[in-house]
Amino acid sequence: MNRRVVEVQQRLAWMREQEIWPNGLRYLWTDAYGVVLLVSLYHDTGNRAWLTQAEWIVAEVERVLGRERGIRIGEAPDRDGQYYHYLAMWLFALYRVGQVLPAYHDRAIELVHEIHGPFVVPGDGIVWKMREDLSEPYPGYGLGALDAFHGYVCYRLLDEVALASEIAELGALVKASYRDMVITQDLALGMMLWMTHFFAAEPWAQLQRERSLAMLDRMWVEREGYFCREPELPEVKFAFTNYGVSVGLQATGAMLDRVDRLDRFFTDYRSGDEYDRAAITHVMGCSSAFPGGLLTAATLSPTAGSRG
């Protein structure tokens, strides 16, 4: 078995023992990555127990966070409302489960129909955060910069026929914004790189891939081996955001030597705050070590997407 897969399984066992994940508080972003990870382990090992765990998390997310329309950000009291980009990532997770069990594909399409209208302002953008019942935008929040790209990619992966009208609306937003968009935040750059690799030949993907890689090159801190939070904040670093960058770089096949270096740096790094034990840190770390179904070719080969 691939060494990385063994390490990921050990880390998952530790998280469960420490009641960090999946038996901690629900958080939609972390759960989305975790579901993709579990489905990836199922494909890699052939052990259906991993798929069963993924189904359990989907059911728990619906039970705990599900609302009449959409899904709440998280279980903790301060994680109210709904984020479109979290929902888009959850759609991707359902897409991966749905490739094995079609009922989850149907749920993903249903979820798009629940959230698209409230969040999307055609010709303008996507509301960053909505009230929990999707009745109105959450006070103090504007439009999300990457949200149209995220939805566009995930909708197309799900079903280009059933979601044709929604894809057209998001495609227009992407076309109108991609030339002027300059991203300077680490995780957002990783996410953009990840999104570009699904439709790599399209003009928006080509431009944003080139621009994102150039920005990340500016943000690399060579001495320690990590990507800083912003170009002007060289001392600010987060493990989970670097792991997100790692996934984006692996998706595009770029800077793989730096992927290995940041993995080594954050293996021993401790921030001294809540992120040391946070589920997002460790689930994203597993995704960096074994991106699996986060990558396009993951379902084509039992070991695709894993680094030796």
Please describe the structure with a list of short key phrases separated by commas or semicolons.
308 residues; 6 strands; 57% helix; 4% strand; disordered C terminus
Report how far apart the termini are: 10 Å
Helical run tally: 12
Strand order of the largest sheet: 1-4
Q: Give the helices and strands as they follow along the chain.
A: HHHEHHEEEHHHHEEHHH
Q: What spatial form do the alpha-carbon principal axes imply? A: globular
Low-confidence stretches: 298-308
Taking all residues together, what is the mean pLDDT?
95
Oligomer status: single chain
The total beta strand count reads 6
**Structural category:** mainly alpha
Write down the Rg. 18 Å
Show the helix and strand layout.
Layout: H1 3-17, H2 28-45, H3 48-65, E1 82-83, H4 84-98, H5 102-119, E2 120-121, E3 125-126, E4 129-130, H6 147-158, H7 164-177, H8 186-196, H9 203-219, E5 220-221, E6 226-227, H10 239-252, H11 256-268, H12 279-289
Antiparallel strand pairs: 1-4, 2-3, 5-6
Helix pairs in contact: 1-12, 2-3, 2-4, 2-12, 4-5, 4-6, 6-7, 8-9, 8-10, 10-11, 10-12
Describe the structure.
- The protein has 308 residues and is mainly α.
- The protein has twelve helices and six strands.
- The protein has helices at residues 3-17, 28-45, 48-65, 84-98, 102-119, 147-158, 164-177, 186-196, 203-219, 239-252, 256-268, 279-289; strands at 82-83, 120-121, 125-126, 129-130, 220-221, 226-227.
- The strands form three sheets. The chain has a two-stranded antiparallel sheet. Strands 2-3 form a two-stranded antiparallel sheet. Strands 5-6 form a two-stranded antiparallel sheet.
- A hairpin with a 3-residue loop joins strand 2 and strand 3 (125-126).
- Helix 8 (186-196) runs antiparallel to helix 9 (203-219) and helix 10 (239-252) packs parallel to helix 12 (279-289).
- The longest helix has 18 residues, at 28-45.
- The protein is globular and about 45 Å long.
- The N and C termini lie close together (10 Å).
- 48% of the residues are buried.
- Residues 298-308 have low confidence and may be disordered.
